[in-house]
Amino acid sequence: MNKPIYVTQPSLPPLEEFIPYLQQIWDNKILTNNGPFHKQLEQALCDYLGVDHLALFANGTIALVTALQALRIRGEVITTPYSFVATSHSLVWNNITPVFVDIDPDTGNLDPERIEESITPATTAILPVHCYGNPCDVERIGKIADTYGLKVIYDAAHAFGVQHKEESLLRHGDLSVLSFHATKVFNTFEGGAIVCPDAKTKQRIDYLKNFGFADEVTVTATGINGKMSEVNAAFGLLQLNGIDKALDRRRQIAANYRHLLHGVKGISFMPEITDTISNGSYMPILVGKDYPLTRDQLYQKLKDHGINGRRYFFPLISDMPMYRGLASANRERLPVARQLANQVICLPIFPDLSDDQLNQIVDRIATIDR
Ligand SMILES: *Cc1c(COP(=O)(O)O)cnc(C)c1O
């Protein structure tokens, strides 16, 4: 059997290229606390992403928890059941009640039509996810937030580098949160960031990620330790050199999958989104009733052949033990999310996936009896 293929594989630059960065850290002995590489990476990411301010974090989850604290979000927050658990967990870590709202089948994102009916006097914010890097309906979500006086924090863990209507998708909402985990399109091993609109908000976020310290003797809040180290920041700078090439290759692979799987009975895709330059972060396919195998049978068959797709996102967050008791987790409220969770397989997509591997994967899906 060939070497197993995973849903993703991090791209790493040649190790020699990282040594000079480490040498610099060894020379100056600054390991963390907003050191020179940390400062450089914040600026480089602002420039690359086309945003004004950004605060680096140790990971995306701590960044989400801190983003909610920075805006003093309380009570209930409207969010999606179709995501990675960290989205809802970040609410619970702040003693906030998640209110699950159904999604739009074309994007996998919160359905703006369903948001208003879930707003109560306790609602303070909306926490949508740009699922697979598909842009949320940012205009309508923004309007609803303005009408009801709510904050909007985007979980943009999938949305690194996505351009929407000729600007960064990360410019929407009050804050956007990125993840630089090993499995994401841009990684710093572990890492994350909050994108914020102004220097004052960034300052407060910087206090919160450093225990609440504003200066040596002033602690402004029960902050956490969410700082990114110099090693991670240096690595991020090196990774940025290759990011355009990596994103191009991902988009090319996504286009190849669409082309080669087109016409396979029972296999479909989410529609491509207009006005958007995607980042090729995920390759979800939907296994329909017309396909000879069930979704789980296809998933298992691929696995038996060393092709490790993932059922992102199954199960729904709202079906997990710590959430399923919530009124908003009621199965009848979330039919679209449930349907998608039962049909989806995310196929392997990463810059080093070869055309040959891609053809193998397509073959396994298109040929029924192997
Ligand atoms: C990866 C991910 C996170 C968590 O980010 P970490 O850096 O792994 O903590 C949060 N939300 C979504 C949607 C993710 O995919």
UniProtKB/TrEMBL annotation:
<dbReference type="InterPro" id="IPR015421">
    <property type="entry name" value="PyrdxlP-dep_Trfase_major"/>
</dbReference>
<keyword id="KW-0032">Aminotransferase</keyword>
<keyword id="KW-0808">Transferase</keyword>
<dbReference type="Pfam" id="PF01041">
    <property type="entry name" value="DegT_DnrJ_EryC1"/>
</dbReference>
<dbReference type="GO" id="GO:0019179">
    <property type="term" value="F:dTDP-4-amino-4,6-dideoxy-D-glucose transaminase activity"/>
</dbReference>
<dbReference type="InterPro" id="IPR015424">
    <property type="entry name" value="PyrdxlP-dep_Trfase"/>
</dbReference>
<dbReference type="InterPro" id="IPR000653">
    <property type="entry name" value="DegT/StrS_aminotransferase"/>
</dbReference>
<dbReference type="GO" id="GO:0000271">
    <property type="term" value="P:polysaccharide biosynthetic process"/>
</dbReference>
<feature type="modified residue" description="N6-(pyridoxal phosphate)lysine">
    <location>
        <position position="184"/>
    </location>
</feature>
<dbReference type="GO" id="GO:0030170">
    <property type="term" value="F:pyridoxal phosphate binding"/>
</dbReference>
<keyword id="KW-0663">Pyridoxal phosphate</keyword>
<protein>
    <submittedName>
        <fullName>dTDP-4-amino-4,6-dideoxy-D-glucose transaminase</fullName>
        <ecNumber>2.6.1.33</ecNumber>
    </submittedName>
</protein>
<comment type="similarity">
    <text>Belongs to the DegT/DnrJ/EryC1 family.</text>
</comment>
<feature type="active site" description="Proton acceptor">
    <location>
        <position position="184"/>
    </location>
</feature>
